[in-house]
Amino acid sequence: ISEQNVEWTSLVQRQITEMNTLRRQHTKEQCEALRLLLEETQKIQTKELVERQTKEKKELELSQVRQNIEDSKRLGSEKNIRNKSDLDRRVRELKSNNTKKFVEERKRQTLKHERDRDNLIKAHESQKTILLADIDKVCFFML
């Protein structure tokens, strides 16, 4: 009976050790999978941000071109322009005003895009820091 007791204890001890080893290995794999998932998700978010910003930039440029064309048409159809020099002066004024306005719009958009990009980078760094800290805690408690 004593021999069976020793065998049984040894068997139970070995099983507990194997289970703990498997549990640690599984936890490490899950932590690595979470880290990779976070990195992949952040890459996707960055890509989506760049695509959205590119689309917004194209839309702004297109609307500015439309605005320029509409203003030119409106100038051409005005009845109170008496001669060619008046028309040329008005066209120059219009182009100058539009150029200033368009440059300001593009600057604002660029600043907004940079701010959005910086905020996303900060959020990603924060998420990664939190995840790595949590992973370290889990690994510490598994030892």
Automatic annotation (TrEMBL):
InterPro entries cross-referenced by the UniProt entry: PLC-beta_C_sf (IPR042531)
Tree of life domain: Eukaryota
Keywords for this protein: Coiled coil
Coiled coil regions, renumbered to chain: 43-75
Protein's UniProt name: Uncharacterized protein
Protein species of origin: Rotaria socialis
